[in-house]
Amino acid sequence: MASEFILEVKNLKKYFQAGQPGWFSKGAKLVHAVDEIDLQLKHGEVIALVGESGCGKSTLALTLMGLEEATAGQILFDGQDITHLAEKEKKALRRKIQMVFQDPYESLNPTQTIQEIVMEPLVVHGIGANDEARKKQVKKALEDSGLKPAETYLTRFPHQLSGGQRQRVVIASALALEPQLLIADEPVSMLDVSIRAEIINLLAELQKTRNISVIFITHDLGTVGFFADRVAVMYLGRIVEIGSMQAVLKDTKHPYSQALLSVIPVPNPRLRKKRIILQGETPNPVNLPSGCRFHPRCPIAEEKCKQLDPHLFNLSAAHQAACLLLENYQ
Fold it and tell me: Which residues span the domain enclosing 248?
């Protein structure tokens, strides 16, 4: 029986060793990059993973891809445990899970043509009877990614393309394998503002036409407001709030989420809210604060916050229904 979820993450942890133990230390210190993450993603669903730089978003993505080994916890893909796979098993899995990285130029081999770049995954995984059959798949992937006609791009090199075109090539390379899950790690942050909407619209269209599940990693909640089904807000290695896009926008609970929402540009000045500017820097993930991890920067922190570590704010179906009811009433 097929699983309801394409991806299930249970109590996932990824720690890195910080330096070597010395004479006066009991052991090497650990960087808590990902700490006790629980996440579920349905077939065809889009989740936006939001948070500041350094909160662990990219490390979580690399761990889900198997590019980083999990310290503890469990990752299930379509019901199968993929937490600790052998290299041969990881290769088979990557036909189903693909990733779009932040910098399109760093993602592409400058010595290969666009045709060679997009065809390489097909060759590695033995897809296609011959090069001619693979070339047809390459053309389809390029045109599905908005590079039309594909023939005009096949013999070009990455440096001959614009930033937006390079990112489309990266997306085409991922789509060539027809994955079930696409992890997009800040895919528009390196692009001009005028191009960002085009790439996001492209991902939204591909998600619908191909029914791909997507984890969209970003530090800007405003970029995925219409695209994501749910939002998971991450801070210092943990997801602190999760819910539908509508529920998070209308019924935000966590003060960190409220701060992120407050700085989203709003065209109508009457709808603008007072900006919440967080003070100080994100705490060192080696020496985590006691109690609530956000309390050193929280504008409403109390003394008890130094001892109590609150549970995840999960905007449940009841919250979502209440939000929808309120919207209809208004």
Answer: 43-69+86-96+179-329
